[in-house]
Give the backbone structure.
Amino acid sequence: MAYRVTVRSLGRVERLRADDLAAALDLAEERARIAATTVPRRAIDVRVRRFEPVQQVAARVDVRGGRVRAGLDVRGDGSVEAWTGVVRRTLLEPRPGEDAYAALRRAVSGSRSVEP
């Protein structure tokens, strides 16, 4: 099954394809890491509100295919959040020792860790 990886950053859209889920997740992680280091943002002031860099999504990486709809949001301060969902995005909380990339892999691969 083919998976689509869509990268939205700096007003550009890049569409990539991967043959399997592991390759799609590798592409998503690679593109998100690049965006996290190259897309710094400043605070935006509008008349009634100020948006700090952490509140801005500087880049979004979507992974779609089969029953998978998930991705990574790169914030303006360089932090990364993983999410899943079709209609509504549900943020994935990383477990201890995990980063957003590992949390995304865990969620979409359906792997479950056994607690001792």
About this structure: The mean pLDDT is 89. The radius of gyration is 15 Å. Helices lie at 21-38, 100-109.
